[in-house]
Automatic annotation (TrEMBL):
Biological processes annotated in GO: DNA restriction-modification system
Identification of the protein by name: Possible endonuclease
A Pfam family recorded for this sequence: Mrr_cat
Family matches, as PANTHER family: MRR RESTRICTION SYSTEM PROTEIN (PTHR30015), TYPE IV METHYL-DIRECTED RESTRICTION ENZYME ECOKMRR (PTHR30015:SF7)
Domain Restriction endonuclease type IV Mrr: 183-294
Organism: Plesiocystis pacifica SIR-1
InterPro entries: Restrct_endonuc-II-like, Restrct_endonuc_IV_Mrr, tRNA_endonuc-like_dom_sf, Type_IV_Methyl-Rstrct_Enzyme
Amino acid sequence: MSAARDAGARSPSLDQWLTHALGDDGPSEAGQAAAKQSSYCFPSTRLLLEYRRTIAARPEGEVVQLIERLLLPSCALGIDHRRSEGATLAGLDGHPAAQYRRRLAQWRSGASTALPWEGLTWLIDLLPFSPRLAVEIIDAYLLVHGGELPDERAQGLDDARELILARFIEAPAVGEGGLETLRGLRPRELECVVAQLYARMGYGVELTPATRDGGRDLIARRSWLGAAEHLLVEIKQVGQVGVEIPRALLGVVISERANKGVVVTTGSFSAPARAFLAANAMEGIAGVELVELLNAHCGRGWGRRVPAMIDGALARWTRL
């Protein structure tokens, strides 16, 4: 979050700014004051944090509309008209924003009608089911174009990222799609939900038999840039996981020559269990972290789809 936007004139109230940003300014004095503020980003960190705190209670349609308003559309910006042709064309080889510079040069010369800035508003279609991917796209866009964008436009993208995290990824305190949903499942049902999570993260998955599972509930594999990843996942529906569970899983990991063992629980890990996981390059996923992974990769509404997730996992990935 930038401190630069917090300098200068006093910002309007959150409601005043939202009315302006969402396109419903009135003739009132408050509306005119809000209209002096940019709608490309929150005018202050205070207003962003205030909106973040109340985002769970707001209508999803409003949140998505605001995120779309903060995203950059396909466009030409004022800065594009001010950039000289020499600066636009100079040093393109290896320039991180070379394609933008080429589009700008072609647009300015009339050789192309394509606008200089490729827009991001299309990523609204990734919500609510693929919010993690939406965040990664914003991160990549800022990595390439952040240095070329006007400050308020870059800040707006960062604000949109914050709202996606707050609304669609961070765990709800209570209610559907929270820990209560997971803790209400039978052990085999929880295994199915975790299998769906790993599938959405890009793994090929296999559920082991419900009994005599060989010390692991889920086998997950994927290849990336020539490197093969082979995970063994043990899933526990318990209050607290002790050190004996990761210790037993490590033996299976060594025996099967897997890359890593992962212990997933709706509860927590004891201090000795956490120490053992860290010492042996194993991963532990517990409680709220599991909910946030499901939100990020399966969408915030995964709680409503649990029966279908279970049926699908049993049909596709069960080892006979």
